[in-house]
Amino acid sequence: MSEKAMAPRDQGAPDYTQYLHPLMAKNYGKWDYHERLRPGVLVHVAENGDKLYTVRAGSPRTMSADTVRKVCDIADKYCEGFVRFTTRANIEFLLGDASQLDGLINTVEKDLGWPVGGTGPSVSNIAHTQGWLHCNLPGTDAAGSVKAMMDDLIEEFKTESFPNRVHLSTSCCQINCASHGDISVIVQHHHPPRINHDNMQICELPKVVAICPAAAIRPAVVNGNESVEVVQEKCMYCGACHGQCPSMEIRDAQTDTLSIWVGGKMSNARSAPTFMKLAVWGIPNNPPRWPEVSAAIRRILTAYKEGAKDWERVGEWIERIGWQRFFEKTGFPFTKYHIDDSPEALSNLNRSAMVRL
Amino acid sequence: MSEKAMAPRDQGAPDYTQYLHPLMAKNYGKWDYHERLRPGVLVHVAENGDKLYTVRAGSPRTMSADTVRKVCDIADKYCEGFVRFTTRANIEFLLGDASQLDGLINTVEKDLGWPVGGTGPSVSNIAHTQGWLHCNLPGTDAAGSVKAMMDDLIEEFKTESFPNRVHLSTSCCQINCASHGDISVIVQHHHPPRINHDNMQICELPKVVAICPAAAIRPAVVNGNESVEVVQEKCMYCGACHGQCPSMEIRDAQTDTLSIWVGGKMSNARSAPTFMKLAVWGIPNNPPRWPEVSAAIRRILTAYKEGAKDWERVGEWIERIGWQRFFEKTGFPFTKYHIDDSPEALSNLNRSAMVRL
Amino acid sequence: MSNEDSSPGMALKTPLLNELESGPWPSFVKDLKEYSKKRPQIVQLLNQLEESYENKWNYWLGKIINVPGYGGGVIARVSEKADKYPALANFHTVRVIEPPGWVYNTAALRNLADSAERHGAGILQLHGMSGDILLLGFDDNGSMNVAEDLMNDGWDIGGSGAAMRTLQCCVGQARCEMACFDTMKTTKFITDSFIEFLHRPEFVYKFKFKLSGCGNDCGNSIVRSDMPIIGTWRGPMQVNQEKVAEFIDEKGLEYLIDNVITRCPTRCLSVRGKELKVEDSECVRCMHCINVMNKALKPGKDRGVTILVGGHRTLKIGDTMSSVLVPFMKLETDEDLENLKEFIERVWEFWNDNGMDHERIGEFIHRVGMATFLDGIGMEPDPRMILRPRTSPYIKFEELAPTRFGGEQTQNPKVWNRESEGPETAD
Amino acid sequence: MSNEDSSPGMALKTPLLNELESGPWPSFVKDLKEYSKKRPQIVQLLNQLEESYENKWNYWLGKIINVPGYGGGVIARVSEKADKYPALANFHTVRVIEPPGWVYNTAALRNLADSAERHGAGILQLHGMSGDILLLGFDDNGSMNVAEDLMNDGWDIGGSGAAMRTLQCCVGQARCEMACFDTMKTTKFITDSFIEFLHRPEFVYKFKFKLSGCGNDCGNSIVRSDMPIIGTWRGPMQVNQEKVAEFIDEKGLEYLIDNVITRCPTRCLSVRGKELKVEDSECVRCMHCINVMNKALKPGKDRGVTILVGGHRTLKIGDTMSSVLVPFMKLETDEDLENLKEFIERVWEFWNDNGMDHERIGEFIHRVGMATFLDGIGMEPDPRMILRPRTSPYIKFEELAPTRFGGEQTQNPKVWNRESEGPETAD
Ligand code: SRM
Ligand code: SRM
Ligand code: SRM
Ligand code: SRM
Ligand code: SF4
Ligand code: SF4
Ligand code: SF4
Ligand code: SF4
Ligand code: SF4
Ligand code: SF4
Ligand code: SF4
Ligand code: SF4
Known about the structure:
The complex is a heterotetramer, with 2 copies of chain A (about 350 residues) and 2 copies of chain C (about 425 residues). With about 350 residues, chain A is an alpha+beta fold. Helix content of chain A is about 25%, strand content about 20%. Chain A starts with about 20 loop residues before the first helix and ends in a 27-residue tail after the last helix. In chain A, β5 and β6 form a beta hairpin. In chain A, α2 packs antiparallel against α3. Chain A folds into 3 domains: about 90 residues, Alpha-Beta Plaits (2-Layer Sandwich); about 150 residues, Sulfite Reductase Hemoprotein, domain 1 (2-Layer Sandwich); about 40 residues, Alpha-Beta Plaits (2-Layer Sandwich), CATH 3.30.70. Chain A has 9 helices and 14 strands. Chain C is an alpha+beta fold and about 425 residues long. Chain C folds into 4 domains: about 55 residues, no CATH class; about 90 residues, 2-Layer Sandwich (Alpha-Beta Plaits); about 160 residues, Sulfite Reductase Hemoprotein, domain 1; about 60 residues, 2-Layer Sandwich (Alpha-Beta Plaits), CATH 3.30.70.20. In chain C, strands 1-2-3-6-5 form a 5-stranded antiparallel sheet. Chain C has a 5-stranded mixed sheet with strand order 7-8-9-14-15, with helices on one face. Classes of the chains: A alpha+beta (about 350), C alpha+beta (about 425). Chains in contact: A-B, A-C, A-D, B-C, B-D, C-D. Chains A and D meet through β1, β4, α2, β5 and α4 of A and α2, α3, β1, β4 and α4 of D. The site of one iron/sulfur cluster has 12 residues of chain C, from loops.
């Protein structure tokens, strides 16, 4: 343990102004419009006519210090040393000189090995989480499955061939640290937690009892020790207890599955934001490349690309054509589990005579 | 008590075919289109060119045998003896001979005293219930308040001056036997039921305990008798117990109020059917003419007529302009009670950044 | 003997009610006052009503009385003020099954008026909110006698208590070009097929059908009936392009765009020159475009019904809206009708076996969940039953959760523990 | 001393992970394998990860460790397989507050890389889902040391436990013509104003802000933050009719109708000749038309923000979506920012005083109801906060229900009895 007793210095957020590309600083709040020059390349034009070029590239998010240094070398060479990252963990190289674009793109794709793309109506990088690399709760890997999926989707990242942006996400346990997405992959557990009664004393009992949304956990004395028990009928396998208490193991390598959800939309454009909805469940959790996941995503993307009108996000497209046709076109079965059974269930029924026939 | 022991004869529904106007019988299922000749007068044209004229008139619904006979006299004179009634308790005189129309209308309006109208984008008859005339539960009168309201709305019944049909309804207790409406008046109670413990033995206890949606009623022994008690905090004053058990009085002549709800829409045209929503509460229950109710309805109708686009029903108009403007335009206050607090409450919040400013 | 002459001499005193006499809308007060001149019982009725107006209070109490062999059809009322108004001591309503679509000839109406007058107060309500003919003001005896007379004249009564209710349907094919099935015939078929359930309360609670010939739902079914049956069609809409062009010539293109094209809920209409294009596969049969252009457009030719389930109004859990149960069913042949009958029986069986006392089918579905309900009636889930799939990932998959604790695999309990404590503990 | 050299000789054995080396997308496996050549600790990391891939199992356990004076900022991990992989015995992540909008110069990035490598495994994640910089693989000592170094270089850490989290915002005015307020400045302002809540868990549970310059919500705020702050404007949109005409000339009128006019959620756009008409009073600032015609249309000039509340993802009650709390607030002057600060404090106070342990503010609002929440923070209800008013008539009006049973008037309990039994009994 370090000797230094470090009082917090309350420094707060870095002073971003020092990190702004000169053209950003100069035209801060004075941008006029933008164009997409080619997939992955934007130009933002300021009111005074200044042009700022952005080259967006797919990043693995997790990278070694050496890789960061490589990125810096490129930015130093082409970008006066300025880069930024995006909400979806892509990187953006910023530059004022259009003539440098080709060289930059070439260097990024060839030397760094990061694909340029992800702008406009493309499949952008997949928002994802820690997985087996660092978290204590994951049922699957995040970075690995994302690598496998993006390998499959590389052309969709490098071209802008969809009706609108496609934002994917994947999480590694039912806590779902990742974002909603047009298409999202999540883990599902299928049993109540297994309790390690011997280890139970380490927890604050009331906390784990209180955290259960189904009121399924109650204090109990097991083998003479204070512990808890789970009412199996009430438990909905959410894993909230597991996050609180490592002695309540929710995962099961044999039975955990993946499911795919569609129609998450966070923008307010046209339609209000929407939650994502269950598309297909029971997909095997199949490292190292999770081919079943990629195949299912491909089915959805193909149907979306064929069927949607310009500007329709995945969820908007499905709302227009109806869920029946979504299931027809993707070939996924519609099952009783697709029917909402939450307290809001009634409002997700088709409460009208509006039926596509 | 009658001596005759009457076994049910299971006769079922009357044979309607004998009651069809000859043109209806002839063209059953073969109608081509219709037109509205003037408010209250329709012509339906059959595929073969036959024309059936309908004169719709407002009926009080409750009528004496003598009034029924007067109706019959008119129908005999003009309609070959055929009439029908509508979902909204209007009457429809049916005839094949256009030249009789004026005479018929004149007779209906002058002799019978029933106004002709209620078709197309007008305010039709108000769907209503028993009230003090017959039910055992009413907190207000139905037929009387409807008479007062329709007196006020007579021009709206006799002309077709709205963007779309306006269907009103009113009920006499919180059971709400009447229909949803574009605008509806309902009664609200404001206390838990008062229990008449002396009378309690007449009920089946479990029934009244079971019926309470808030689980607020529990068996109790009062003055040595089996009775029930109501947990006041849980009770939501719905009156379900009162319907089951006359000893649990929910009404209170001093504190019961009326409220007005808007945007009920049962048709599937354009938008899916919608429930009606709270517009204004705390209106006094003020017989014999309930002027406050008529005034409030007038405010809504005026704003609707001014603001809505053709074909927009009241609820659709409000959805388009937003509730803020509805409250602005009608001048009703928006209060915390307008905010849903049912289990589905979250889904009735504005879960977006879509705001009219 | 009817109770009409029981108190001949009482004076009418209705200052408040009198305020409802004038004004342009027909006045039931005026009518009844007039009628009271020959029917003294009505004086008492109006006088008691006047007291209600004065005190904002009601003086009717319920009781139960049945015509022999029937379990429903009479709504029995006794007056709390019978001492003062002896003619109101018993003042029951008899519920008479109406002709489907509320069509009458005057003979039938006169017959009803006569029966109402002969045995009761001579007051009719055309019609009750559940569609039937209400005849008011019978004493116990009068109730029996009017029932006897009505029966002899071909009418039938029923529809109260935990029973099927009278059906209600729009005028349909009798006078409407939109009608996609025979609402009147189907109404009579269901009524007659299940007449015993209209006569005797044998369900856990009431059950209502309402029928509309198309999505305009003039029968007002979707929130007011447990099983709305609504006309619809499969395949292409009928478009008469000549009449489309006439419409555009008459009203203008902008009118068409503003009132038709942009109003289609699934945006499946477009105009190309003077032609209207319908993407039929995405049309949800909402009726709007047909309503606006009713000469040019018509429902398609392959017609049938959509059956919904679960509507009821406010009491207990608040209004429930019906939702789609059978997306499409043909309803033309006798066999089709028999299929419908069998289907209804299946639904009833599951509901009545598992529903709680006083639990409408919509409340029942709310409690057990639509998936369980479909299982129970042996129907496959269909995405047209839903607006959208679930958003919560907490699911108990039977298929994926083999038992892990030894012993029996637990049943598939609802993910959300929704049993309300009240009704269930008492059940 | 960092734990990097603790097991120098181990061989890398990752047949499964190797399958993630090839393919066009950048491979973290390839990167780390390469990096492992100079960092033996990474060999152990990859070998343990390989075991996870083999067994579909995870070998990290949590523990709690804090930098002195801080209550958050380090996510401590110990390996279950520390015997086999001693370099992973302690392998913590340090959460570093990122520059608003994720803008960097290379000096800053190199500095981060150096610190990460000097004291830890030299692995960076740019960025975590809550926006911050994640540096991986520190032992207890390394965590302290890296914090010290970072602090000396001007960085700060924090954002774990029941505390405020690092904020996240879109690039905003720095590079976007849509931006309606200064997302970066506001992000820094909130971070700095409440830095102690980022350092020390003093709330009932975590609290996140996310900021987006306009309704496109590139900050992805609405379901992932407790308080999204989203740019918007009052009054008329800026329309450049010349550019509208150019747009129509270039793309055609049909394109405009199909992609703009018919897509407006409130139907407030119409085209008259080559002019675009906006009914500004009904525009909900959805951004769609501006997105499509970004040269011709711009947000209005009177700009500000809409503040929402209550978003969180799945855990416990399922995802909750934020909803409107402040329809419009100016956010330009220092005074505006102070107002915002004060407002946040008010919200926090009520939530922290009344929220249960581990109850996000969205869950709290779900439990107590929005009306109660507004009461609690002293805000007037505004119809823009809701999609539609209530549909259930069962309301307890304080104003209308004077006590009738004697004694105190009962408080206004919720109409629907929604307290979940679990958390409350334990509270
Ligand atoms: C760089 C970034 C902001 C940042 O600060 O990092 C960004 C930048 C832009 N976004 Fe975004 N968006 C960014 C994340 C998002 C997100 C959040 C997310 O992905 O998690 C959303 C909401 C996602 C959702 O709805 O689920 C988002 C929804 C939009 C939309 C709305 C799309 C729609 O129709 O629903 C637009 C408008 C448009 O496409 O014209 C938009 C438009 C833009 C524009 C055109 C704004 C501008 O004028 O500069 C920028 C994009 C260029 C392009 O073509 O990609 N951006 N944008 C983010 C890039 C992510 C990436 O690497 O792919
Ligand atoms: C690192 C990160 C995922 C990532 O790879 O990017 C992450 C990782 C963890 N999250 Fe998360 N969450 C991360 C962003 C999120 C997000 C996304 C966001 O902030 O936009 C969410 C969903 C949004 C939300 O807040 O609801 C999220 C919802 C949770 C939850 C559930 C919270 C809830 O109220 O539903 C938990 C569980 C908890 O708090 O008990 C959780 C808990 C955790 C813990 C601390 C697990 C634990 O209890 O030990 C994970 C630590 C992993 C590790 O070893 O570092 N994490 N977590 C993200 C934080 C990095 C950063 O600060 O930038
Ligand atoms: C006679 C009646 C059916 C019956 O069997 O009794 C009827 C008859 C017609 N209705 Fe209706 N509707 C009748 C009750 C209803 C109801 C039910 C109710 O009022 O309780 C509704 C649903 C109400 C709701 O949505 O809350 C109803 C919603 C419609 C609509 C849909 C309007 C809309 O845009 O939402 C149409 C279509 C239209 O207006 O073109 C319609 C259209 C029609 C047409 C034009 C159908 C036709 O082609 O013949 C008939 C009307 C003439 C007219 O202009 O009034 N009818 N109509 C009912 C007359 C009630 C009355 O006396 O006012
Ligand atoms: C007469 C009528 C109102 C009218 O003036 O038209 C009526 C009158 C009564 N209704 Fe009703 N209801 C009438 C149509 C309705 C409707 C409308 C409909 O059917 O479309 C509804 C709402 C739709 C629905 O079914 O949900 C309706 C929902 C109720 C309820 C609540 C049922 C529920 O599940 O929520 C009750 C209470 C009960 O059943 O315990 C009720 C109970 C009653 C009782 C029997 C009160 C009682 O428990 O003693 C009323 C008898 C009054 C009387 O003295 O005659 N009435 N009742 C209607 C029946 C006449 C007819 O058969 O045609
Ligand atoms: S989703 Fe679960 S496993 Fe993955 S980082 Fe978040 S808490 Fe950890
Ligand atoms: S998994 Fe979820 S529902 Fe089951 S006991 Fe744990 S917290 Fe409760
Ligand atoms: S609404 Fe209430 S009072 Fe009126 S008829 Fe129905 S049950 Fe009776
Ligand atoms: S009024 Fe409603 S909530 Fe109150 S005790 Fe009676 S049934 Fe229960
Ligand atoms: S529901 Fe349809 S078929 Fe029936 S009357 Fe109305 S418009 Fe005609
Ligand atoms: S019936 Fe309705 S859904 Fe079908 S095309 Fe016409 S407007 Fe569109
Ligand atoms: S949210 Fe708006 S302001 Fe921010 S980057 Fe996206 S489009 Fe630009
Ligand atoms: S911003 Fe959205 S709501 Fe406003 S006019 Fe444009 S499309 Fe319509």
